[in-house]
Design a protein that fits this description.
CATH topology of the largest domain: Dihydrodipicolinate Reductase, domain 2
Structural class: alpha/beta
Order of helices and strands: EHEEEEHEHEHEHEHEEHEHEEH
Mean pLDDT: 96
Distance between the termini: 13 Å
Low-confidence stretches: none
CATH class of the largest domain: Alpha Beta
Number of helices: 9
Radius of gyration: 20 Å
Strand content: 15-25%
């Protein structure tokens, strides 16, 4: 893999910081590094491989000489600046929703549809965090017997709403412990010691934006435009890592033992399934792990072709930063193959 000139847009945000950590963790060959953010972050310093880098202001001119640009500054910034990054010759890996459902933009989880990267036209979309974690967990089963229907309920951490939301959860815990009035500004409701429906607008179909993303994006990645999916997305008072309760209706019966064997060989999956010890996936243990933890693998007692499982995955890693860096690694492999 030849060294790459990298730009990270939204470098001071929760996902931007994780992208830097994952690049370092994976020993990704970085020839040059540009940290880009809004004007208010200019001059801040972030460390990469023991060396300080100053944050520069995001501008159209900033992408000159960049090979790969990781965007994690929201859909508005992506729509505004990705054309400039493409024009400068960079390949963009975008963590926002801006281009996910664009038919000309691959939406990729490498464990599922890495082959779609061959069709990119300068932009690759990183999926919604919940959809990415779901996809890693159920794709191997879909490959084995086919999935006819997915019912998924999510338990989504504060990290999905960014660094400010994580701070709000911590602040509210302190306020509660000190007997103070609990305040909130990031979330519409108190997040500490509470759960509530995902804080996105409810569409005319009765599903909120997060739920509709799970449906649309999973279908796109699976190349299954009519796959029935019923999601319910909930915020929970967890700092980091999302959990999901998943019930699958399969095209043919599959025993829990068969499913466990398939998933134990699947890339990106870690089996955490110990009924005797009552030890199953937990966000606390999934935090910081690149893999999606899968357990509670059991029959759906209401359906002979049904299977139920519970998963936990780090929203900032597999749900964002790690998936983005993984895409960059896959692009490098394709570049090597093309050169051979």
């Amino acid at each position: 893999m030849r060294p790459q000139n990298i730009a990270v847009v939204g470098a001071t945000g929760a996902v931007g910081v994780e992208i830097l950590r994952v690049l370092e963790r994976r020993n990704f060959p970085v020839a040059g590094l540009k940290l880009l953010a809004s004007k208010r972050s200019v001059g801040k310093t972030l460390e990469f491989k023991g060396k300080p880098y100053k944050v520069e202001e995001l501008s159209a001119e900033a992408f000159r000489g960049v090979d790969i640009a990781f965007f994690s500054a929201g859909a508005t910034r992506s729509r505004e600046f990705i054309p400039a990054a493409k024009a400068a010759g960079a390949v963009v890996i975008d963590n926002s929703s801006a281009f996910r459902m664009d038919p000309n933009t691959p939406l990729v989880v490498p464990e599922v549809n890495a082959g779609d990267l061959r069709k990119h036209k300068g932009v690759i979309a990183n999926p919604n965090c919940t959809a990415a974690i779901l996809a890693v967990a159920v794709w191997p089963i879909h490959q084995a017997v086919g999935i006819r229907r997915i019912v998924v309920s999510t338990y989504q951490s504060a990290s999905g709403a960014g660094a400010a939301a994580m701070r709000e959860l911590e602040d509210q815990a302190h306020e509660f412990a000190e007997g103070k009035a609990i305040t909130h500004s990031v979330f519409p409701h108190q997040i500490a010691f509470n759960v509530f429906s995902h804080n996105t607008r409810v569409a005319e179909n009765g599903y909120n934006e997060e739920e509709n993303k799970v449906v649309e994006e999973t279908r796109k990645m699976f190349h299954a435009p009519d796959l029935p999916i019923v999601p319910t997305c909930i915020r929970v008072p967890v700092l980091r890592a999302h959990s999901e309760s998943i019930v699958l209706e399969l095209a043919a019966p599959m025993s829990p033992e068969e499913a466990r064997a398939i998933l134990s060989r699947a890339p990106g999956v870690k089996i955490v399934d110990d009924p005797a010890g009552n030890h199953f996936p937990m966000p606390l243990e999934a935090s910081g792990d690149l893999d999606v933890h899968v357990g509670r693998i059991r029959r759906d007692l209401s359906n002979p072709n049904g299977l139920a499982l519970f998963v936990a995955g780090d929203q900032l890693l597999k749900g964002a930063a790690w998936n983005a860096v993984q895409i960059a690694e896959e692009l490098a492999k394709l570049e090597v193959l093309a050169a051979e």
